[in-house]
From TrEMBL:
Annotated organism of origin: Candidatus Cohnella colombiensis
Start and end residues of each GAF domain: 151-337
Classification of source organism: Bacteria, Bacillati, Bacillota, Bacilli, Bacillales
Gene Ontology BP, a term: negative regulation of bacterial-type flagellum-dependent cell motility
Gene3D superfamilies noted in UniProt: 3.30.450.40, 3.30.70.270
Domain of life from the UniProt record: Bacteria
Domain GGDEF: 329-501
InterPro entries: Diguanylate_Cyclase (IPR050469), GAF (IPR003018), GAF-like_dom_sf (IPR029016), GGDEF_dom (IPR000160), Nucleotide_cyclase (IPR029787), Rev_trsase/Diguanyl_cyclase (IPR043128)
Key words of the record: Membrane, Transmembrane, Transmembrane helix
Molecular function as annotated in GO: diguanylate cyclase activity
Pfam families: GAF, GGDEF
Protein name listed in UniProt: Sensor domain-containing diguanylate cyclase
């Protein structure tokens, strides 16, 4: 004899397979309805096979499932349906049973709401933790990369990449403008991002395909300084006067970020930005370090048009502060480095810089000629004794300016010491170096120096010694200087104010 359990199990399996098939055919509400109907059929099948001996209890399964699926509406409908079914099956009043069902449904509803609330609360905390973890990782990567960046361009590229990368803060576009040395203008320096939505989607597709992370994008950005050429060309053309009222000068004056989605038609600078970069919304962050105005960071979303929220603004502020400090430190570093390699009086590179550069050039001089010009002011001791050292300093300053006017890259001019100067001419033959020296000698001779008429030759003059590695291919750097010094000695003894090579 087949027990009732076998047909019940078979029927339940068939219903489950059918329900599982149907759930792929509709929406979420349709799937819930399939589940509710299936549970009711299972309860009725159980009653059918067991002569409805425990249907009043198994009906609680149907009520619980319906309440979970459709909340209070499900509770009311399921208790009503269950009450009607029980009344039809027993033919008696089921008020007590219906009240029991209603209390049970209410309990399930409240328990489900509580569990749902706790789940949402847990998800919210998990989302916050995930977001904060991502932000901490961004700040860590940015901080590490900033410490490794020596060049300003690489530093800015790192910052902008962190702001725009999907694994970073995720903005579509960012640009940096820096205050000039005089503090009167903001100059566009660099931008990262697309000029059009099509360009942006193409970039995103490439990043997604290669599965780049933030650290990968930063490393790529450090190597490819010239990325986003079209945007950078336009950014570098920007020059904003800070003495004129604009949204940029306002941000630097107040020291507070600014979020703009409605345009002030009286702000011509803002209207120019909106037109030039196709902006519909933007945010500006001041770059200020120790009350020093460094520049501004501008962000927007021209591709996905995602609104910039207050939370987004808060996320950018720490990076903006890091950026300001890093740029300011970089400026200090450059000034200190400049002081270390430049002569304080003349502004020319000093003897230390000369030694460093000469050592770097000599290894290549066997293949490419390196020439050197050594020059010395004639009778400079007589000038100082006659006119004083302060006037002598004026002569040195004026002479340095004449040298700077003629000597341009790749040539380099240095103050060698005292009244001596030296010029390095890479990839230059001795013959051409002599012509350069003669041109410089002529320019100095024609110049008017203070108290020059008191000199033995009636004016301030300079003698030159020229040497080249083409005459001494296997020699070292000090041999080249010594050869130029010997030539200078000959120029002095030949009557001064001349070039000897």
């Amino acid at each position: 004899m087949i027990t009732p359990y076998v047909p019940l199990i078979v029927s339940t399996l068939l219903l489950s397979v059918t329900a599982n098939y149907l759930r792929f055919k509709g929406s979420e509400k349709f799937n819930k309805a399939v589940l509710v109907i299936t549970s009711l059929l299972v309860v009725e099948l159980e009653g059918l096979f067991f002569e409805f001996t425990s249907t009043d209890w198994t009906m609680l399964v149907f009520i619980g499932i319906t309440t979970i699926c459709f909340d209070m509406i499900g509770a009311l409908i399921s208790t009503s349906v269950a009450g009607c079914i029980m009344m039809l099956q027993t033919g008696e009043s089921v008020l007590f049973v219906w009240l029991t069902y209603l209390i049970f449904a209410t309990g399930v509803y409240l328990l489900h709401r509580y569990m749902k609330f706790k789940q949402q609360e847990s998800d919210a905390w998990l989302s916050k933790l995930s977001t904060n973890s991502k932000l901490l990782n961004v700040y860590k990567e940015v901080s590490f990369s900033i410490q490794q960046s020596v060049q300003l361009q690489k530093l800015l590229q790192t910052i902008l990449t962190a702001v725009t990368a999907g694994h970073g803060l995720g903005f579509n576009r960012a640009m940096i403008l820096l205050v000039d040395e005089k503090g009167t203008h903001l100059n566009g320096v660099m931008g990262v991002g697309p000029m059009t939505a099509e360009e942006g989607f193409a970039v995103w597709k490439g990043i997604a395909k290669k599965k780049f992370k933030l650290v990968d994008l930063i490393q790529i950005a450090e190597k490819e300084i010239t990325s986003d050429v079209l945007l950078n060309d336009r950014v570098k053309m920007l020059e904003i006067a800070l003495d004129e009222p604009s949204f940029l000068s306002k941000v630097l004056e107040t020291g507070s970020p600014l979020h703009l989605s409605n345009w002030d038609n009286s702000d011509q600078t803002l209207l120019h930005f909106v037109s030039e970069f196709n902006m519909s919304e933007l945010a500006v962050f001041p770059l200020i370090s120790q009350e020093a105005k460094v520049g501004v960071l501008i962000i927007d979303n021209p591709v996905n048009k995602k609104p910039i929220t207050a939370n987004d603004m808060d996320n950018v502020i720490p990076i903006a502060k890091q950026t300001a400090v890093a740029i300011q430190h970089r400026h200090f570093y450059m000034k200190i480095e400049d002081m270390a390699i430049k002569d304080g009086l003349t502004g020319l590179l000093n003897h230390r810089a000369f030694q460093t550069n000469l050592v770097q050039y000599i290894p290549y001089s066997r293949e490419k000629t390196l020439s050197l010009i050594l020059l010395d002011i004639d009778s400079f001791k007589h000038f100082n004794d006659t006119n004083g050292h302060l006037m002598g300093n004026e002569v040195l300053i004026q002479l340095a300016k004449i040298i700077q006017c003629l000597i341009q890259e790749p040539y380099q001019a240095f103050r060698f010491g005292g009244e001596e100067f030296v010029i390095l001419l890479p990839q230059t033959s001795k013959e051409h170096a002599v012509r350069v020296a003669e041109q410089l000698r002529s320019n100095i001779e024609r110049a008017t120096f203070p108290c020059g008429e008191k000199q033995p030759l009636g004016r301030v003059t300079v003698s030159f010694g020229v040497a080249s590695t083409e005459d001494m291919p296997s020699s070292g750097e000090f041999d080249l200087v010594d050869r130029a010094d010997q030539a200078l000695y000959k120029a002095k003894h030949a009557g001064k104010n001349r070039v000897v090579g």
